[in-house]
Amino acid sequence: SLFERCVWFSQFGNLVDNLRLYVRGGSGGMGLPRLGGQGGNGGDVWVVAKKDVTLKRIKDKYPQKRFVGGAGANSSVRSLRGERGEDKQIFAPVGITVTTDDGRILGDLNAEGDRVIVAKGGPGGSRYTAFEPSKGQVKHIRLDLKLIADMGLVGFPNAGKSSLLTAISNATPQIASYSFTTLKPEIGKLMYKDYKQISVADLPGLIEGAHINKGMGHKFLKHVERTRQLLFVVDVCGFQLASQTPFRSAFETVQLLTKELELYKEELVSKPALLVVNKMDLPDAEDKLQELKEHLQNPDQFSDLLPDMIPKKYMTFKHVVPVSATTGFGIDHLKSCIRESLDEDAAMETKAIHQERLQALRFPSHEHL
Question: Structural domains in the chain?
């Protein structure tokens, strides 16, 4: 129902990883028959990679999602050769694939300044066309954020992320490299009985203060966006980063990770997420897990435990899964939770796309004028 769709969008609507846009090249200008004058060609529409642009920003700035090239000028006595229409540029983030509505790839934006032409302007009228101009190309295009993996691991260095990745993967995790980033994450592949594969990325370490750009931290946060969902990993017994930093309980760790994501980009906190509570083989792990669950259910009651890092919005986890990467406890359950969560997500997205297309059929906009 539309209601479900609204709930879906309000829950996860802040993070935009794909956009559908209407693009039309500019129309050509009229030729001038008695003097053989040629009309100007219409402007083209381009998608251009630019730093610090997000798909969400495009969506907010251009709610109509329509981009049209400038019209070519008519030929006149004063100017026999009509002026060319102005090109329209759509600035988009780096690391985007541009496709037509039916999935044909028009191009990739891997580095700042990369450009892809998405709609050509129409030629101006000339003696070859009886001085009649042509309209520009019309298309619906999609901008898709290139993903590194289905799931991204989020956790501090001691959480046991790499041993967890090895425990859930069917083969040794591989280092992957991408054309649009220098970061080389480790990617593990989860295989299921029906041959479905799910990829999980462990990105180089997040540290406290990453949003202020300490070391790799900022790069890490930038790439969290390029996973469909997040897998928070915490040590059930908490952790201490270094002797001079305070000890953090598992609950504090969750909120600290949430705060780091929020300070970097608020909408990251609305990504679907699961929480993995690792190291369940340690003594007292059961009691600590119960305490963590209690704190997560009523985070406001326990926020006084968080000195200066209370997130604006607490992360809601679709599943809280206790595991031990060392003994293998809980690993199969975790794999099925990951699968279930991604399948739900895909079903929602398909539904939303169908709704959007139905909507377009019911209420055609003035796109063809």
Answer: 18-146 (2.70.210.12), 149-349 (3.40.50.300)
Letter for the amino acid at 102? Answer: D
Q: Which amino acid is at 10?
A: S
Residues contacting residue 65 through CB under 8 Å, at least 6 positions apart: 19, 20, 21, 22, 58, 59
- Smallest CA-to-CA distance from 22 within 159, 131, 138, 108 is with 138
Return the pLDDT at 277.
97
Alpha-carbon gap, residue 126 to 177, rounded angstroms: 50
Q: Is the predicted pLDDT of residue 178 greater than 80, yes or no?
A: no
Mean per-residue pLDDT of the chain: 86
Q: Is the pLDDT of residue 204 over 80?
A: no
- Helices and strands (H, E) in the chain, number of each type: 7, 15
Q: How far apart are CA 359 and CA 62, in angstroms?
A: 19
* Amino acid in position 332: D
The rounded distance, in Å, linking the Cα atoms of 277 and 279 is 7
| DSSP-derived secondary structure for 91-131 | EE-SSEEEEETTS-EEEEE-STT-EEEEEPPPPPP-GGGTT
CA dihedral 198→200→201→205, nearest 10 degrees, is 170
Q: What is the CA radius of gyration of the chain?
A: 26
Q: Does 347 or 363 have the greater pLDDT score?
A: 347
Query: Using one digit for the tens of pLDDT, what is the confidence trace for 287-341?
Result: 999 999 999 998 888 777 666 678 888 899 999 999 999 999 999 999 999 999 9
Q: Give the number of other Cβ atoms within 10 Å of residue 256's Cβ.
A: 19
- Residue with more model confidence, 267 or 73: 73
